[in-house]
């Protein structure tokens, strides 16, 4: 699904640098690092009842995908689009992923945690870890945190058993 929050056009300037794109208006300054760009598309958008060409930029912002649109004269749009495509070319994925890995990737993208993915796809912890390793090695994912699996020691078993006994035992 798509949720649009506080979508509004702001008049401003664009500064394209080697490391990112700056959008500067009277109200704000926003930088989109080139490494955070997930997709670029030259498309049209209805603005004030007219279909106008825009560059659509999907990028990561605070752990979610944000879509920004740039509207400017067509010649500037073409230059911006071409630059962004070339600047992000190295981040293209060269190998295909299998359907199960793609499915896991989609579930991660939609916000599901590892336990839910394991249950939903009937995968063991080790199977899911292997899929995560594949996504990591391809540069398609990054580690948020490492989940620990623990087992009680004899001391732990004694302590827990004593703690949960009712006073009547």
UniProtKB/TrEMBL annotation:
It holds the Pfam family CheF-arch. One of its GO terms (biological process) is chemotaxis. InterPro entries: CheF1/F2. This is Uncharacterized protein. It comes from Methanoculleus marisnigri. The lineage of its organism: Archaea, Methanobacteriati, Methanobacteriota, Stenosarchaea group, Methanomicrobia.
């Amino acid at each position: 699904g798509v949720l649009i929050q506080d979508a509004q056009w702001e008049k401003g300037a664009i500064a394209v640098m080697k490391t990112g794109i700056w959008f500067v208006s009277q109200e704000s300054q926003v930088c989109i690092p080139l490494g955070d760009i997930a997709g670029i598309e030259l498309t049209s958008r209805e603005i004030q009842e007219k279909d106008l060409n825009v560059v659509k930029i999907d990028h990561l912002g605070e752990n979610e995908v944000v879509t920004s649109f740039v509207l400017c004269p067509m010649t500037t749009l073409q230059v911006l689009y071409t630059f962004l495509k070339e600047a992000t070319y190295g981040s293209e994925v060269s190998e295909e992923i299998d359907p199960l890995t793609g499915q896991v990737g989609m579930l991660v993208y939609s916000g599901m945690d590892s336990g839910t993915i394991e249950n939903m796809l009937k995968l063991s912890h080790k199977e899911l870890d292997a899929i995560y390793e594949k996504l990591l090695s391809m540069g398609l994912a990054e580690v948020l945190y490492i989940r620990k699996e623990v087992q009680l020691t004899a001391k732990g078993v004694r302590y827990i058993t004593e703690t949960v006994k009712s006073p009547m035992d």
